[in-house]
Amino acid sequence: MAQHDFDLFVIGAGSGGVRASRIAAGHGAKVAIAEAWRVGGTCVLRGCVPKKLLVYGAHVAHDIEDAAGFGWTIEGAQHDWAKLIANKDKEIGRLEGIYQKLLANAGVTLIQGQAKVVAPDSVEVAGKRYTAKTILVATGGWPVIPDIPGRELTITSNEALDLKERPKRIVVVGGGYIAVEFAGIFAALGSAVTLLYRGEMILRGFDMDVRSFLADELRKKHIDLRLKTDVTRIDKTMRGLSVTLTDGKVIDTDAVMMATGRAPNTKTLGLAELGVKLNEKGAVIVDDWSKTSVPSIYALGDVTDRINLTPVATAEGHAFADTLYGNRPRKMDRRDVPSAVFSQPSVAVVGLSEDAARGQGIAVDIYRTSFKGMKHTLSGRDERTLMKLVVDRTTDRVLGAHMVGADAAEIIQGLAIAIKAGATKAHFDATIGIHPSAAEEFVTMRTKVPEAAAKAAE
Known about the structure:
By secondary structure, the chain is α/β, with parallel strands linked by helices. It has helices spanning about 15-25, 40-45, 50-65, 80-105, 155-160, 175-190, 210-220, 310-325, 355-360, 375-380, 410-420, 425-430, 450-455; strands at about 5-10, 30-35, 110, 115-120, 120-125, 130-135, 140-145, 170-175, 190-195, 225, 230-235, 240-245, 250-255, 255-260, 260-265, 295-300, 340, 345-350, 365-370, 385-390, 400-405.
């Protein structure tokens, strides 16, 4: 029997790859992990963590504005963008160190460099070949910039996190998580923000009530949201950049941020040449066990373009390692995965949207409420909260919970447990709310949205 250098060779030291490596090593496997840049992946280095830190910083601007209603006088408050970025970088460095220590303590060999799969059991990094019985691809995704004139003048979320100065004017192109989050960050910190989206409504795939409600709230935050609008070209001028739109209008700005999607990181891996099947986007096609069309090669996380969320990648990595090395075969359960958008106000959801439930032929009852949060009765801020439940009319099971408002992620995380456990609307109704809180509204909604009105909202 051929001897291999490692039992498992992982490509990509992001959340999924690191989790899979650590757990596999803990089960006794000899593991190596290759990383072309820094340990931590998109979430720690270029995504959810640094972005959330900037969101916290942006929220302080709102808190200062709201303070007057509570009797505070705050004069002369100024924001130092460079200091925020420096402090963010310091925290990212600390987290990277923790990830490196976790790998070292688990006995995982970290190999620095760009990896390429050269055989079903071989990986090449910086000119050196390593063999492994099993190869795991966990290389994540990368921002995509549309092929338009002037594309080289734009930035993505990667560069936005490292800007030396905050642009006074910025155009954000896109309508997904990243676009609305960064639009909120820049607007709160004082930039004039234009948000362009080519579609009918932002946050495609979310419940329509959530989408339209957030659009209204973004406009209240002085974000110039323009729907059914795209960019045709970008030109450099004496005063910055000139952005030409599909409607013929032109916007003068200091920066253009493209948040127009992400593509799986597979181009340089050599997978297709070995017979690993990829889809039209370049994502690795896998089965429920994360196995590719080549038996010795597996893939997980964003590179597979299934549910592109960090906790999903870590769960897939854990299940993979338990299955192959822990004598505990199991699949990652992709039902009722909660998610959040750290817009301002934030969005969080779990389970089915109203449209998705009806699309599956399920007869549903809809419970929906919107209100001004208690805080803003004194702050004076014109911000409202939306909550919505989608309930199976036949079984009374709660199929989905949706929220737009402060602390949405913290609230929906708890509801996700209930929905995962199969809670019914009767269970919600029997639960005593915590008063006064926004969260209590989820257990006090009693009036169904009239059927005609619910269908009209689709």
